[in-house]
Amino acid sequence: NDSKYDVKIGLPALEVPLAFPQATPASTFPPCASDYYQFDDLLTSEEQNLRRRVRAIMEKEIAPIMSEYWEKAEFPFHVIPKLADLRVAGGTIKGYGSPGLSVTGSAI
């Protein structure tokens, strides 16, 4: 649709970054400034490694493109193999190619 109006309600499309600059997403995630509740101390070394791996992929592959895909209401299917490499799909299920994560690891 080339129209600058929303077909459903007939109003001009909202330019979110212009209307709400504070809602403009960052291209990277901010570093964790503190661990007030000392959550990291509760994680196993495997869970800490999982958190680092997921964050690295999110910063490198997802954050730089997420705004573009969000605005176009499209899904970046080309990132699925990279997400699959994280081996987190299937969460706590063991076997059948699933990682058998802890409940905490699955939540991360």
List keywords for this structure.
mainly alpha; Butyryl-Coa Dehydrogenase, subunit A, domain 1; single chain; two-stranded antiparallel sheet; 108 residues; AcylCoA_DH/ox_N; AcylCoA_DH/oxidase_NM_dom_sf; 5 helices
Overall description:
The protein has 108 residues and is mostly helical. It has a single domain (25-107), classed as Acyl-CoA dehydrogenase/oxidase, N-terminal domain (Butyryl-Coa Dehydrogenase, subunit A, domain 1, Orthogonal Bundle). It is 43% helix and 4% strand. The protein is built from five helices and two strands, in the order ααααββα. It has a two-stranded antiparallel ribbon with strand order 1-2. It is flat and about 45 Å long.
Task: Map the helices and strands.
Elements: H1 16-19, H2 39-42, H3 45-72, H4 80-84, E1 94-95, E2 98-99, H5 103-107
Q: Beta fraction of the residues?
A: under 5%
**What is the CATH class name?**
Mainly Alpha
pLDDT averaged over residues: 78
CATH architecture: Orthogonal Bundle
Helix content range? 40-55%
For the record, what is the CATH homologous superfamily label? Acyl-CoA dehydrogenase/oxidase, N-terminal domain
Give the count of structural domains.
Answer: 1
Give the beta-strand count: 2
| Largest β-sheet summary | 2 strands, antiparallel
CATH T-level fold name: Butyryl-Coa Dehydrogenase, subunit A, domain 1
Coarse morphology: flat
Order of helices and strands: HHHHEEH
For the largest sheet, list the strands in their spatial order. 1-2
State the end-to-end CA separation: 38 Å
